[in-house]
Structures are given as C-alpha cells and as structure tokens.
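Minutes, methods subgroup
Present: GH (chair), OT, SY

1. OT presented the first of two proteins processed in the latest run. Sequence and structure tokens recorded below as shown on screen.
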Amino acid sequence: QVQFAESGGGLVQPGGSLRLSCAASGINFDGYAMNWYRQAPGKQREWLAIITSGGITNYADSVKGRFTIARDNAKNAVYLQMNSLKPEDTAVYYCNKGGVLLRWGQGTQVTVSS
C-alpha cells in the first residue's frame, strides 16, 4: 500500500516559519514528481507546489516567493519550507505524487495565529 506521512505542522505566529516533511512508501519515489497541497475548513483542496524527479519546481501564486519545495530521494521524502506565514495559510497540508493522485495521508495541521 502507498503511504504518505506528513509531519512538522504546528502553531506559528504570523511572519514565522515552519518546515513540513512528507515520507512516502510503496512507490518508486525517485521516478515521480511530488506535490504539496493544503485544505482549509470549508474550502477545496488547493495545489501549492511541485518538484519533478529532476528537481524542477513550480508554485501556486499564493505561496510563490514564500514557500520552497525540496526532496531527498535517498529518504523517500519531500519537504516544504514555509516562510513569512500568514493567517490565511492556516490549513491541513498534504503531499501526493504527480499525475494520478494516490491515497491521501492524514496531513499535518498548520495554524498561523497570534
């Protein structure tokens, strides 16, 4: 079974930073692009960032310039460095592979509040 295990969320003040991690299993990780998504209460899941197997990245306008996606193929892991956080970044954050999405993990809660 494919598993995505997100971690690193928490409570942070506006302007602060967090680094999220996603550990993947059950796929040939280094052969796939990886993505980060988020979902706030009552809202649709939003795509945030992608990193290809070769390390090329792209970002949603809402996070461009503030968030950075990276991967470590040796650890089957993808990361999201989140800087200059805003209250509107409050959401549950998820990772998934590129192309056809697989089973969602539990996500990790990020709350940005003073």
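2. SY then presented the second protein from the same run.
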Amino acid sequence: QVQLVESGGGLVQPGGSLKLSCAASRSVPSINTMGWYRQAPGKERELVATIAIGGARDDADSVKGRFIISRDYAKNTVYLQMNSLRPEDTAVYYCYAQWRSAVDMTDKESWGQGTQVTVSS
C-alpha cells in the first residue's frame, strides 16, 4: 500500500500564495499519476490538478494560470504551488496517487488525510 501525507495548508489572504506538499510512504516505480483534489463545505470533491509519470499535466479550468503542480520523483513527492488565491479556493485539499500493484498487477488508488486551505481577509 502507498500512504500519502499532505502538508503546507493554512490561512492565506486573497491574492496570496501557498505551497502544498504530499509525500508517499515508499518508492514505487509503478506510481503513474499523482495529484490534488479538493472539497469545500457542502460540495463534492473535485479535481484540482494531476501529473503523470511522463510529465503530462491536467489542470482544472478554475486553477489554470494560478496553480502549478510538480513532482519530485527521487523524493516521491508531489507539490501544488498556489498563486493568486481566491476565497473560493477555500477547501480541504487531498493528495491522490494512482499506482499499479506489483502483486496482482491491478491499478490502485491512495488518498491523503487532507490539509485545510482557507483564503480569507
């Protein structure tokens, strides 16, 4: 199993920046995609951004031009640099990883515990 631990959340004023980090518990060459989802109060969890092992990125329209996802393969860590933050970005942000089990060769998913991001003046 791959365990994910997020960090970097907090309170930020509108227009500010914040960087989230998510570290995997072990090195797994078969981890294909890592990324971030978020869930605001009363809303469904939604995709923020993902990055595949080949470097392909997929960003939600609401964050394009403001958020940048990156990945450090040596550290098994994915980052989310958030700029020009808006109050509507307030949510719990969850790290995500999609990987293939070496035991049964099936695709698996792992989720972090979540980190709170609050954008308020």
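Chair's summary of item 2: Residues 35 and 50 are 4 Å apart (CA to CA).
Next meeting: continue with the remaining queue.
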